[in-house]
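ok so i was messing around last nite and threw this chain in just to see what happens. nothing serious, just curious
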Amino acid sequence: MTDLTKNVLEEATNCGIIDLAYVQDKIDEMKKQKYLEMHPYSITLGKDGFWHTYLPLGNSKRKAVKKKSKEDIDNVVIDFWKRNTTTTFKQRYSVWVERQKQCGRSNNTISKYESDYIRFFEGDRLENMDIRDIDEVVLSQFIERLLKSKEIPYRALQAMIGYVNGVFKKSVKDGIIKKSDNPCDEVDLPLYKQYCKRETIKTSAERTFSKKEKNSLLDILATNHETKPNYIPSYAVELSLYTGMRVGELSGLMWEDIDTEQNIIHIRHSEKHDRKNNEYYISLPKNGKIRDFPLTPEIEDILNRVKKVELKNNWLTEYVFSNDKGRVHARTISECMRLKTSGTDFHNVKCIHTSRRTVNSEYAKAGMPATARASIIGNTERVNEQNYTYDISEMDYKRSIISMVNRATKAM
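result:
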């Protein structure tokens, strides 16, 4: 409150224009009414002459309460919600995150929720606003402020509104607001797409290996195996070129997963990194899906060579890729791929996912059905076609086809 406002109020009070005590009473009454409106249960007068209601205990349980007068039971309800209500957006976001923990979300997912809160909401006035006061206009103004102050890609904006929606849905469930009060249902998010940061779309050449690049990498790895045979990560990179396995699956691959009798690799383990605790652990592959991959002679040759090196150095463990420090972590394998593809023979530095996209695209070029490719790569068919299938045909091949068509056209 400014000095001018204080002076005006004092003068108005002294002149009898405003009764501050009366105003304060009205404000207190409005606050009480707000708490009563939050109460999800009816307050009723029973046949026994007592007033009845319930107080929530959590876990969908409740406790019956009865009082002789309406004022007494109102006070019980008001006191309860004063003690238990956390109604600012910041507090409700914490409640929502806690709920996600109870639902079994991983530490990495929780860590992302927490870091994204800092990214999107921290420092904005939305943080300390009462959840009941945030409507479509307030939320739209927040989005406008966010896009003016930071470069936000549209996908990130969609994630942000998803968090807000989760916060409001949890508040509906807790009886703080009504379902119809969720502003996310009214905000037309696509309208803001034009103000979002434009995402760079990488070309096929950037996201896959050309035939020349793949041959160059195989030559580099072959030389590495001769000069530094004990460097285990390079064998994992080579295996990625033949299988398209995820980097965590390479790190988590176990010798028991190699079925030489049926010539199958059972891809059922994957390394995960808990960012909150900075710990590595082995879990199921992404989405919890186990899959089988054919064990071809080329793949078996890699496995035989890496086992020979590990036996010689007494490094053999239950995991396929192990060195003097134990299991080779996914991060080390990824770094090896980036290092090996940082030279002038490559259009750009590659990652392990480059192998996944290349392997899938090669299968597509060879005529393997989409369903079979998705199954063997370990994606849904939709994701596989949208994000992992690229045109990897060489320009000379395209040129010859186009030339043949042009000659036929000219001859008509």
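not much to say yet. The mean pLDDT is 89.
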